[in-house]
Write a structure and sequence with these properties.
2 copies of one chain form a homodimer.
Chain A (H helix, E strand, L loop, with lengths): L6 H20 L10 H8 L13 H25 L4 H18 L1 H10 L5 H23 L9 H24 L5 H23 L4
Helix pairs in contact in A: 1-2, 3-4, 3-5, 3-6, 4-5, 4-7, 4-8, 5-7, 6-7, 7-8
The structure holds a DNA duplex (30 and 30 nucleotides).
Amino acid sequence: MSHTFGVRQAQKQRTRQALMDAALALLEEQSLSSLGLREVTRAVGVAPTAFYRHFRSTADLGVALVEEALGSLHLVLGDLMSAVGDSDELIRRAVELIARHVDAYPAHVRFIARERHGGVQPVREAIQGQLARFAEEVGDDLAKRPETAGWSDDDRLMLAGLYVDQMLATASLFLETHDGPEAERERVTRLAGRRMRLISIGCRHWLD
Amino acid sequence: MSHTFGVRQAQKQRTRQALMDAALALLEEQSLSSLGLREVTRAVGVAPTAFYRHFRSTADLGVALVEEALGSLHLVLGDLMSAVGDSDELIRRAVELIARHVDAYPAHVRFIARERHGGVQPVREAIQGQLARFAEEVGDDLAKRPETAGWSDDDRLMLAGLYVDQMLATASLFLETHDGPEAERERVTRLAGRRMRLISIGCRHWLD
DNA sequence: CCATGCAGTTAACAACTGTTCTCTGTAATT
DNA sequence: AATTACAGAGAACAGTTGTTAACTGCATGG
């Protein structure tokens, strides 16, 4: 079988992950389009040519990072949608889960926010594609809820996109206060909550 | 006087503008953190060392570009706020003005969207600062309108930020369809309009 | 147990980068 | 008319980059 993991395959995947982690760390203070292949291998402690055993180019590395970063965010989205309850309670929960995720994977969030409109086309497209899937999922979930009963699918997708955008904007705000004072984080929490509340109010009166 | 423009000063500003224009063009398919000084001077047709007569570094160039790009967008914002009339009419007008601006200055819009979360700190901070000023202005304008009567300044600023973010998101969407089919542009126009309409509805019922 | 596959190495390449120093021509000042 | 200020040119620097080729060692499958 191809997925029987011997010592060989395991070691390969380990250095592959090391390359991705190193890249993510280097991307804290630059963007993907300026990330050099040698820079990454140097950080890992491996020969430059070893890079090619795992990725065709840094753009290819970037696409792999998109899958990793948005994969972890997708789990949060699942958590968000599985919840039920009062609207205000849902919003509070959403903001807190986002804050927790930013705390746990700040580099992932920074990468997505930075490369969503970044200078590397394949990466941009990968992100847009995944986010479109996110919006579809949220739209499908909204269809099961009473708040959007009687809505057209198109309108539901509009709202879903708005929520997804808001999720990323909120995550980005939390990222800026990641090693700032607690008061700032609290301010962002309240701000994000009110933003989503205003949207949910608009949603409640959409069909008037 | 220092601002008496002789032949000398005029020529200097001309090449300075040429450098900025060339940079903006090069940034269509990369981000600022990978933009090389030599790359820019080569595109203009001047010696690499001439760059230093105008900018300390490419980051410095970036900050100048922020002022240019957000300066032009600021004019659009002024147009938007000076208008009065029915809510739907205002939204239609806003979306059209944004579309027009993206058509007129696509490179400016791309630059702001890309570097807002980009890898060059001074540029990021310049953008965030200007956008905060935008939000303040919109907040002040909202205070004069009946829709937000009785709101706290904090809530008004929250709504203003939401509108500013939405303006940029809309501009970014238009940019993606910039040389696409007319049908796509129409779809984005309708989507952006509905997004803003939902927000304005939420605004109308905020104090319930 | 031996042959193969393949992750990773070493060395070398031409091309490119930012930065410094020195020089030149000419507009502006005196 | 003589002097100064300064935008831009030119050459050179040490260091970096992506990519190729031929290699080594070792886990794996027959």
